[in-house]
Amino acid sequence: MNRSICVRASSRVCSTNRTGSPSAPAIAEARVEYEISEVGRSLAPFFAHLTEWAATNLSKVEQARHDYDTRPAR
């Protein structure tokens, strides 16, 4: 999925705040800034838990990928 679509979708569900400013004549695109909203910040504990899970299980995930990628063709 396009990163721009993902970021706009997060604005739509209130997890980020999007602020646009008019583009300068020399700049082809308008400048857009994003910040995490209060609702988005409420997800921090979940992301912290997910990060901890990933750190704990990364080697298992990598091994499973390797096993899958190197298995004999069927």
SSE arrangement:
Layout: H1 3-12, E1 16-21, E2 31-36, H2 38-41, H3 44-69
Protein name: DNA-binding HxlR family transcriptional regulator
Domain HTH hxlR-type: 30-60
Pfam family, one: HxlR
Quick description:
The protein has 74 residues and is of the alpha+beta class.
Plain-language structure description:
- Keywords: DNA-binding.
- InterPro entries: HTH_HxlR, WH-like_DNA-bd_sf.
- GO terms for molecular function: DNA binding.
- This is DNA-binding HxlR family transcriptional regulator.
- Residues 30-60 form the HTH hxlR-type domain.
- The protein folds into 2 domains: 1-42, no CATH class; 43-74, no CATH class.
- The chain is elongated and about 55 Å long.
- It has 74 residues and is α+β, with helices and mostly antiparallel strands.
- It contains 3 helices and 2 strands.
- The chain has helices at 3-12, 38-41, 44-69, and strands at residues 16-21, 31-36.
- A two-stranded antiparallel sheet has the order 1-2.
